[in-house]
Amino acid sequence: MSDAQHGRILSHHGKELNVEYVDDQRQPQIKSCHFRANLESVVTGDQVLWCDEGDKGVVVSIEPRETLLQRPDSYGKLRPVAANISQLVIVIAPEPEAHHGLIDRYLVAAENMGIKCLLVLNKADLLQQTDYSALLNLIASYRKIGYEVLTVSAHSGDGFEELQSALNKEVSIFCGQSGVGKSSLIKKLLPDEELKIGALSEAATKGRHTTTHTQLFHFPSGGECIDSPGIREFGLWHMDADDILHGFVDLREHALNCKFRNCQHENEVQCGIKGAVSEGLLYKWRVDSYKRIIQSLNDVKMKNQDKKR
Ligand SMILES: Nc1nc2c(ncn2[C@@H]2O[C@H](COP(=O)(O)OP(=O)(O)OP(=O)(O)O)[C@@H](O)[C@H]2O)c(=O)[nH]1
Ligand SMILES: [Mg+2]
Ligand SMILES: [Zn+2]
């Protein structure tokens, strides 16, 4: 076996890893690798050490991660999604319908990772066809809270200059529901890359995701983007109530004005959150969204206690 050398995980599919490295001629190469069984989950974006074993390589260690996006799988086990990312790009569209609950959860995750968030409304070409005022109001609200929202169309190319410049020098992961056009956006940015684009009807009706694994792409001008499979739910059970509040950037300052440290913002006196809602300083739907997430943490806690009994 050769000496260990440095590499970067471009994709992870089952037991297969694609590792990018620089060869003796300083040229970028890709090697198909597997990983040592004792290694914790290796993910796209990881910096690793690997050894050449001929046809295949083997990843032997993961270098310390700067950031890690993770989420619980359907069994509640926490799974890493991607490592060393600097920006979360939350893609939404008029179709399939955007749900603010999912957006809020992504925002909480990004705030707690200390990375940038960018909201991208794709399929802007559809906006003329029907009345999407609810969606446009939602976007206006996120802008007011302080988030950047770009309006783009992977089909027409509208908004792509702004999108490209927001992605420059960042390592961005594209997240969101299945069918919003994450892969279509990346394909439009990088026409030479092979990416599968799915028919929306299939994703919506059969719950099938076109993209099945997380994959990293380079921009010629610098910066990288990661395509990921669409999701329906994003559990935050691995976080505590303080993390959730930290993730609601608009709520957290008002919560400081609550009289009680453990205020539930329901019927307590001197509640900073309720006060801010009545003064029109906070959106009630954001407060409700926050409470729903807190409730979901409590539900999981109760379930776990029941199991132990
Ligand atoms: N009208 C319109 N349709 C779009 C646009 N971008 C993507 N689509 C369509 O939306 C559908 C889904 O696109 P994908 O890029 O596969 O969506 P995805 O988010 O990658 O989906 P998953 O991989 O399943 O998570 C395809 O039929 C695309 O042609 C757009 O700007 N306008
Ligand atoms: Mg896709
Ligand atoms: Zn309160």
Structure, described:
The protein is α/β, with parallel strands linked by helices. The protein folds into three domains: 5-62, Nucleic acid-binding proteins (OB fold (Dihydrolipoamide Acetyltransferase, E2P), Beta Barrel), CATH 2.40.50.140; 68-227, Rossmann fold, CATH 3.40.50.300; 241-308, Ribonucleotide Reductase Protein R1, domain 1, CATH 1.10.40. Helices cover 31% and strands 24% of the residues. The chain has nine helices and 13 strands. It has helices spanning 100-113, 133-145, 160-167, 182-189, 200-206, 241-247, 249-255, 272-278, 284-308; strands spanning 5-13, 16-22, 28-35, 47-52, 57-62, 68-72, 78-83, 87-92, 116-121, 149-151, 171-175, 215-218, 224-227. The strands form three sheets. It has a six-stranded mixed sheet with strand order 10-9-8-11-13-12, with helices on both faces. A five-stranded mixed beta barrel has the order 1-2-3-5-4. Strands 6-7 form a two-stranded antiparallel sheet. Strand 8 (87-92), helix 1 and strand 9 (116-121) form a beta-alpha-beta unit. The mean pLDDT is 92. The structure holds guanosine-5'-triphosphate (GTP), magnesium ion and zinc ion (ZN). Residues 182-183, 210-211, 227 line the site of magnesium ion.
Q: In brief, what are we looking at here?
A:
The chain has about 300 residues and is of the alpha/beta class. It has helices at about 100-115, 135-145, 160-165, 180-190, 200-205, 240-245, 250-255, 270-280, 285-309; strands at about 5-15, 15-20, 30-35, 45-50, 55-60, 70, 80-85, 85-90, 115-120, 150, 170-175, 215-220, 225. The chain contains nine helices and 13 strands.
